[in-house]
Amino acid sequence: MTPSDDDHTLLRRAIALAAEARDSGNPPYGSLLAAPDGTVLAEDRNTTLTDRDITAHPELKLARWAARELDAATAAETTMYTSCQPCTMCEAVIQQAGLRRVVFALSGEQLLAIRPGSGRPPVPQDGPALLEEVLAVVEGYYL
Question: Phi and psi for 34 in degrees, rounded to 5?
């Protein structure tokens, strides 16, 4: 779906929020949630540095807000506008919150082209292990 002029207006606000985050000493990311009529329901900025919280991404904070404050039907009609494509952590929380749509200005691929890497090596993961034991706990929960 191609973003509309109304989408662009709300996306510009997300970009302004990103500038506010940068001005306050945080990474330059901003996001907002809007109802179908364009009413802004909530907005936030990245505060990972000032909050000393590596998960303080605006997309994650807003998805958590939506899951806590909106009923499922309202969340399912809500669009997130964000200055940059959500990372995989935020994307998972947005999906769990049941939001309808995300509109972003800068793609993750475009960001990687202008941003140096984190300098951290990938964390090795080993598994699955103890499958029967964990299945005894998990099976039947999601019925």
Answer: -130, 145
pLDDT tens digits, residue range 58-111?
999 999 999 999 999 999 999 999 999 999 999 999 999 999 999 999 999 999
Print burial letters for 62-87: b (CB count within 10 Å at least 16), e (below 16): bbbbbbeebeeeebeebbbbbbbbbe
How far apart are the C-alpha atoms of 21 and 49, rounded to whole Å?
A: 10
Query: What is the reported pTM?
Result: 0.90
Q: CA end-to-end span of the chain, whole Å?
A: 34
In the chain the beta strands, taken as DSSP E runs, fall at 30-34, 40-45, 79-84, 101-106
Phi, psi of 75 (to 5 degrees): -60, -40
Q: Which two tokens stand for residue 137?
A: 């706990």
Cα torsion 117, 55, 64, 22: sign: negative
- Neighbouring-strand partners of residue 44: 31
At residue 127 the predicted structure's pLDDT band, cuts being 50, 70 and 90, is very high
At residue 133, does pLDDT exceed 80?
yes
